[in-house]
Write a structure and sequence with these properties.
Elements: H1 3-22, H2 26-37, H3 43-59, H4 63-80, H5 83-99, H6 103-117, H7 127-139, H8 143-156, H9 160-180, H10 184-202, H11 210-226, H12 230-246, H13 250-268, H14 273-287, H15 297-306, H16 310-321, H17 323-351, H18 363-376, E1 380-388, H19 390-396, H20 399-416, E2 422-427, E3 430-435, H21 440-456, E4 469-477, H22 483-499, E5 505-507
Parallel strand pairs: 4-5
Antiparallel strand pairs: 1-3, 1-4, 2-3
Length: 508
Amino acid sequence: MSSHLSHTDFTSLYDRAVEARAGGQYQQAAALYREASELAETHEHRLHLRMREAYCRLSANDRHDAERIAADVAREARQEEFHAELADALGVSVEALMLDERYAEASAVMSEAMYVMERVPNDPAYYQVIHNMAVTYQRCEFPIPAIELYDRALRLARTERDRTFTYAGLASAFHMAMIFSNDEATASRHLHDGIYAATAALDSQADREVVAEAIALAHRSVLLNSIGHHQAALDDAVRARTIAAAHVLREEEVVAMIGEAVARWNLHKDPTVVELIADAADRARTLGVEVYLSSAAPVNIDILWEGGRYDDAREMMAMQFNALSRALQREREARWEHVRLGVSLKSTEALSESDPLTNLPNRRYLSHWLPDVLENHGPVCVALLDLDGFKQVNDDFSYEHGDHLLLELAGILQRICRRGDAVIRIGGDEFVLVLRETSPNDGRAVLERVRQLIAVRPWQGLPAGLRLSASIGVSVGSGAVDASRVLAAAGDALHVAKREGRDRIVFR
């Protein structure tokens, strides 16, 4: 197959997968994403497409395959340090654990997911990852962090379709935030923000997206009821139920049923809506979305009261507004504190392995990471770089100027290295570059580019005529037992480069 044909086939498969997903045809979309992943040009892109498949399978209630794919992707993404794909995979794992009511394990995995998300760049290429994690936060009943991520995704959305999906997600998150808010003014703000977001999704100029439309209509129906616009709420709810039933969107159908029941009661005092609420409650418990039932509780109470069932009405009021709601709130807050503690611990652990000035990995990180790289990604070029004349910068100008120069140098080195390579600061003006699966000839080409860039660069904040150079010592190894030998050899080669006149590369 020619490369042109492969690219054409890939584009066709990917576009068809996107269309199928937007239309709620999740099984078909999953199969198309799987086919597209087999034609992906890079390992990272292949993992990205496998996660698109996993999320589609999750939406189609194929949990077993979704969890299996996510576990495989997480394992590979950790090894390759693909943060976006790892975050995506962890999101699926969190949802699976939540559905199994394994909350402690879910909180631990979410801590890792949140920590990894902080390392995903704010780049439009990662829109889907950020949007998916917002959905995961919301399904774990953490609506405020979900709203923050939806806002982040909205800023990165490149297409009207992406913006439509994000606004729909925001509407549902604001709805949940309104339910959980104990402050009347805050709840009101969430209510109106939710209506705005849902309307923005429905007024979109993009081709009609049935999933986004169902989400926006269903949640807007409940929110409109809250401000007394019951006829508009009923219209939204009926439309949402029709779409949700046709495309098997079960959660949206439950929310729309609640919206319809509340609207019909307020418009017509129709007592039969109690049956609709009971049906919605059964479905909500199956899906784990009982939180949305709170909007129907006042209607149930009204029906019981008007039917003369005063004791039942009082019991429901007590259950709704007293012990149960407080207990659920305490549990949710405890889970959130558990997640935040996990993120804090991971950040503390990471700081102990990172350089405080440049935020690059440090010598401690190198000591346990390099053996694994040598074992699994040989041959590996390990280069020890030292700036010639850096001490003079500190002496003639200031240590602050020296720190700015080191930060600038760290950025240069990171931009030159490929994904999966590493730049490590081991102290002062000494850096280690680790180039995986790199022959000596290829390593020399990369490092010569580094040497030349440093030699000609005008450094910010320093005199235009000031020029620095770099001495670089390199060793090549393969196998975990080579770690200490390779580093020692690179150090010896650096000493030779310094001794022979500096501004040069020496291999050992």
